Amino acid sequence: MSKKQKIVLAFGTFDLLHPGHKFFLKQCRKKGDKLVVLVARDKTVKHLKSKTPVYSEIKRMEKIRNLKIADLVVLGKHDYKKRYDILEMIRPDIICLGYDQKFFVKNLNQVLKKIKLNCKIVRIKPFKPEKYKSSILRGT
Q: Phi/psi at 12 (nearest 5 deg)?
């Protein structure tokens, strides 16, 4: 009998892909057997950050796929109110968050309890945040 694969979920905007993002994804990869990365929709980024990403959601998704770190790269939901549906679909064992990730974090534990998903939440340490941070690279 084979053991169940440990599924890791990471999510973010991943605009202006930089070494900090690559470090984050590689650290996420080490936490389990299968890495699923959710890329935020343009509409969601605009809603949450009040700015449009430099690269489209499709381009950002392609860039993450091209890194060949994740086993699966998906786009977030069009409907912001259904943003946590991915948790029920994928049922990750571990959710990795960036060191500065603020969105979708506040109610995460309550959502996990509601959908009866017992998974670990892990914060990934930063990689040279004084240099590799999208807001710094973007100049905002």
A: 175, -175
